[in-house]
Amino acid sequence: MTFERLQLIPPILKALAKENYTQPTPIQEQAIPPALAGRDLFGCAQTGTGKTAAFLLPIIQRLSTQQGSPNGKRVIRSLILTPTRELAIQISDNFKAYGCFSNLRSAVIVGGVSQQAQEQALERGIDILIATPGRLIDLMNQGIADLSHVQIFVLDEADRMLDMGFIHDMRRIIAKLPAKRQTLFFSATMPPEITSLVDSLLMNPMRIEVTPVSSTAERIKQTLYYVDKPNKLPLLIDLLQDKSIVSALVFTRTKHGADRLVRGLTKAKITAQAIHGDKSQNARQAALNNFKSGATRLLVATDIAARGIDIDELSHVINYNLPNISETYVHRIGRTGRAGLSGIAISFCEHEEIPYLKDIEKLIKQKIPVIRDHPYPMTISAETAAAPPTPSEASVRGASPKEGGGRRRRRRS
Ligand code: AMP
Predict the structure, then answer these.
(1) What are the two backbone dihedrals, phi and then psi, of residue 89, each rounded to the nearest 5 degrees?
(2) For residue 243, how far is its CA from the centre of ligand 1 (angstroms)?
(3) Based on the domain organization, do 101 and 160 belong to the same domain?
């Protein structure tokens, strides 16, 4: 399959060639033709599958082949709603790449930065708006963002949007969209809330499913270290003696945990920076740029902050903490296996995280191979530790994380 066969227009084909994309990914192959034909779409796909191009290319094609508005001023003809700032910026970067030979204009509306430049962009007129819900609602309430001309609406990472407590914001935004529109809906998982949202939002959608969440794990080499909490840092430092770990994305459960880890690594002369919701947008972008350029070896992230980060060719993911939601484990390690690459995922499991491990192994339908021969073995033997959790251990599962990890906590973008 080639992009030409998907009937894409020359300016898009030229841009894809410039990106060195030789063939569409499965989701692109399946999503682009119906999306070009104007159909609603329900894509069950996660980051790393090429889903961004799957919705951006049809948008670029459909909008750039339309007549401009008669009085010349651009109106928002496509809205892409996404849960995090990083994801919004990544989508915008992708649009700049894929749309570089079109004459469409886009803007990003996210929180955490001054509103003024965003207002000016809207005032000048744009075709495509990429936004997180909180700031968009603010601008709608101020009468600055007008969604009444939207023809194509994309809801990206809808499951994460629900997890982050954006359901009411989403509904308020959707209420302002024209009823007659095309909706492209993407979600990595399909909890019941998503199914009912799909039913209420989409008209006879084309359903596309790629890389189900449980199969992602098969491509990635996974290992597990049982280790006591205080020994996690020394163990990590020890593992990082291995120079083949050129760079790694390290996940912690909490923002404070991320900062603490960065301090510990810095003391050990390992370059690391943290990226999480308490950092300013500029600080996050700087950390990401340093990581991408190789100036820092480790990027330490919380799940929410990491969600939208686009890093090509990531070889290692390290779970410094195991996540309490098993799907999150799959999302995390899936960061290494992008665009067909294989990757390595290293996980640390302290005693209290054993119930999480059990849930993860149930989801991925495999046992993560355990490395027993390391300098910081768990003081309780790994066998005892690996035994099914007692009722009191199991209660850890329901405990709410102390900092930053609440599942249904509401966040403004
Ligand atoms: P996404 O799932 O949209 O986040 O895309 C994952 C990564 O794959 C991004 O770094 C894209 O630049 C890249 N990508 C998307 N489509 C293709 C393609 N057809 N060929 C090669 N790389 C691609």
Answers:
(1) -70, -40
(2) 27
(3) yes
Considering the entire predicted model, what is its pTM?
0.62
Find the CATH number of the domain harbouring 276.
3.40.50.300
Do 118 and 183 lie in one domain? The reply is yes
User: Which string of b and e fits 218-228 if b means at least 16 CB within 10 Å?
Assistant: eebebebbbbb
Q: Which atom of ligand 1 is nearest to the CA of 46?
A: 2
Centroid of ligand 1 to alpha carbon of 209 (angstroms): 17
Let me know if residue 411 belongs to a domain: no
Query: Which atom of ligand 1 is nearest to 311's Cα?
Result: 10
For residue 381, the model assigns a pLDDT of: 62
Q: Which structural domain, as residue segments, surrounds residue 303? A: 220-404
Spatial strand order of the sheet with 182-187 comes to 106-109, 128-131, 78-81, 152-155, 182-187, 41-44, 206-209
119 and 243 within one domain: no
Beta carbon of 82 within 6 Å of any ligand 1 atom: no
Question: How much distance in Å is there from the Cα of 16 to the middle of ligand 1?
Answer: 11
* Mean pLDDT (whole number) for 105-133: 95
For residue 293, give both structure tokens.
Answer: 């350029």
Structure tokens at 192: 């019941």
When divided into structural domains, the chain yields a total of 2
Same structural domain, 288 and 328:
yes
Q: CB–CB of 80/55 below 8 Å?
A: yes
Instruction: Tell me the pLDDT tens digit for each residue of 206-241.
Output: 999 886 544 565 678 899 999 999 999 999 999 999
pLDDT at 113 over 50: yes
Tell me: do 374 and 271 sit in the same domain. Answer: yes
251 and 353 inside one domain: yes
405 lines ligand 1 (CB under 6 A): no
Do 311 and 204 sit in the same domain of this protein?
no
